[in-house]
Design a protein that fits this description.
With 564 residues, the protein is an alpha/beta fold. 43% of the residues lie in helices and 14% in strands. It contains 21 helices and 13 strands. The strands form three sheets. It has a seven-stranded parallel sheet with strand order 7-13-12-8-11-9-10, sandwiched between helices. A four-stranded antiparallel sheet has the order 2-3-1-6. Helix 18 links the parallel strand 12 and strand 13 (452-460). Helix 2 packs antiparallel against helix 8 (189-214).
Length: 564
């Protein structure tokens, strides 16, 4: 892993790192509060000899005395660690402890080439540390004086002993008394906090590395490029305000809501880019029958299908959107059209295209074929020759057919459809779809010798680590262009007379014999699609009618919705 990879992990799991940092610091602070406090006080003594203290001595005598004092300093420091000094201090201060325990609280040092003895004493209270350091210097002075004075006992003629004392060769004089410390030296709060914060940060980063290792979710286009052999032909941005809305179609709030207006422009431009990429998959023979599916429910395949159909129809081409999800259909509800009869009824011979197909917006050559009645055998219907011939008849008339298919992994419907069409677009949701799920979906298509046209990455963040550079050229680089273009297209459409079934240049009968096993004759495409907008067929007249909504563009991603 490179440094950039580590930085990406740190940015992705910044919250875990922050929790680790704060948690480690709080734990360290709690330890400092619980741990007993220790105070330290320092005192020092100065070694003198009679030759150095005598005012009448010569320079040579003073030098000799100084040399002697320096030679004795190390020995006196060793003496300060002995039991005899601790016993004197216990007696002096009236302490209730043992000499061994007291010695452990004392540190005695003699700096090199000096005549100074330094004592550092530790105690649970500030005053106790100061008293202990001063008492230790006094006890050492007493013991040094005894050793250097040469005290001895001599017998006399009358049977008694006489104690004789010589002048001490060196003495230890207090140089600096220990001051009462104002703050404890242990625990060192700053050090503890620094160590705790560092430890918490390291643990959190280890967690981030481990989680990143086992996190198989697709987060960016780079993840797909590294793990899949299929191209990404489109990315759609995430707009939280549109996710979970009641309609999958974009409802532009206009200039009254600048943020929503900008989001709609970004999504619309991304859909146009997807439309262009599909056309350039094969310039000479672009795909006409396209299955739109996903690995699992909830990735946004129905939203992409509806939005892409609208975007393609805006170029003036004829687009047929077929709801091939015969288990949980959504297209009728998305476009607010009748869905009581549809694809399943046409394939079963219970209805004709004149009755089932609907044109939601008279300004667009977009036609919607709902799923219709939910059959007990969806896979058999979707794999039938009747559906294959229906799609091919649309394609033969120059229309682009989009089939909103079920997810690939739960059922086999989409794989069956892919084998009978030009290919499939696999919709993956950034931050939700797993690499292994997408890989299994691609394998399902390969197993039936189908074609994967490409992968559409949906809900790509517009901000943050895995964001895509939407609006790279600035706020209104393509926004204003799109708005003006829409107005121009709208004015042209209003001036353009819509062709009728008789005057349409493609109004050539393409009537084919019924597929084997079917009992109905399919009406010609042109007669079915270019009838007078809003004119209901026989069964539509008996069904409750809903007013078609303007098609402004698509987004929301509910995975299931009821049509009845």
């Amino acid at each position: 892993m490179t440094l950039e990879a580590y930085l990406r992990i740190a940015r992705r799991y910044w919250l875990a790192l922050l929790v680790g940092l704060v948690g480690g610091t709080l734990i360290a602070f709690a330890v400092t509060v619980i741990q007993p406090k220790t105070y330290t006080a320092d005192s020092s003594g100065f070694i003198t000899t009679p030759s150095t203290s005598s005012s009448g001595s010569g320079v040579g005598t003073a030098v000799a005395g100084d040399t002697y004092a320096k030679s004795r300093a190390k020995s006196y420091a060793d003496l300060g660690k002995k039991r005899v000094v601790a016993e004197d201090v216990i007696q002096d201060l009236g302490l209730n402890t043992t000499p061994e325990q007291l010695v452990d609280q004392i540190t005695v040092t003699a700096p090199t080439d000096t005549v100074t003895i330094k004592v550092s004493a530790k105690a649970s209270t500030a005053q106790g540390a100061s008293d202990l350091a001063n008492a230790w210097i006094r006890a050492m002075s007493t013991e040094i004086a005894k050793l250097e004075s040469g005290e001895s006992e001599n017998a006399t003629g009358d049977g008694t002993t006489q104690q004789t004392t010589a002048t001490p060769a060196a003495t230890l004089t207090s140089l600096e008394s220990a001051a009462v410390p104002t703050s404890p030296t242990s625990p060192n709060r700053r050090l503890y906090l620094a160590v705790g914060a560092l430890a918490g940060l390291l643990l959190a980063f280890g967690y981030a590395l481990l989680r990143n290792q086992y996190d198989k979710r697709i987060r960016s286009a780079d993840d797909v490029a590294r793990t899949m052999q299929k191209p990404i032909i489109g990315t759609l941005p995430l707009e939280k305000a549109l996710v979970g809305a009641s309609s999958r179609l974009i409802q532009d709030a206009g200039q009254h809501d600048a943020r929503r207006h900008s989001a709609v422009r970004h999504i619309s431009e991304s859909l146009r880019e997807l439309r262009t990429n599909i056309d350039f998959l094969d310039v000479d023979d672009p795909p006409r029958g396209i299955v739109i599916t996903s690995a699992l429910p909830g990735d946004g395949k129905s939203t992409v299908a509806a939005n892409l159909a609208v975007t393609m129809a805006e170029t003036g081409r004829t687009v047929i959107l077929i709801d091939a999800d015969l288990r949980k259909p959504t297209v009728a509800n998305t476009f607010n059209v009748p869905g009581e009869v549809g694809l399943s009824d046409v394939l079963a011979g219970r209805a004709t295209l004149e009755v089932t197909i609907t044109r939601p917006d008279p300004q667009l050559d977009l036609f919607v074929l709902p799923a219709g009645s939910i059959p007990p055998n969806p896979s058999e219907l979707l794999g039938s020759d009747a559906l294959h011939e229906l799609v091919q008849s649309f394609v033969a008339e120059g229309a682009t057919v989009l089939l909103d298919a079920p997810p690939l992994l739960p059922v086999t419907d989409a794989a069956v459809l892919t084998a009978r069409t030009d290919g499939a677009l696999i919709v993956a949701s950034a931050g939700q779809t797993r690499v292994d799920s997408l890989q299994q979906a691609l394998e399902r298509i390969d197993a039936v010798k189908g074609t994967t046209l490409g992968i559409v990455l949906n809900r790509v963040p517009t901000k943050g680590l895995d964001s895509y550079a939407y609006g790279y050229y600035g706020g209104d680089y393509y926004g204003e262009e799109s708005d003006h273009s829409s107005k121009r297209h709208g004015s042209r459409r209003s001036r353009r007379q819509r062709p009728t079934a008789q005057s349409h240049p493609r109004a050539v009968s393409s009537r084919r014999p019924p597929a084997p096993g079917t009992t109905h004759a399919r009406a010609p495409l042109v007669e079915s699609l270019h009838r007078t907008p809003g004119a209901p067929g026989p069964q539509q007249a008996r069904s409750p009618q809903r007013r078609p909504q303007p098609l402004l563009g698509p987004y929301d991603d509910a995975t299931t919705s009821s049509r009845r």
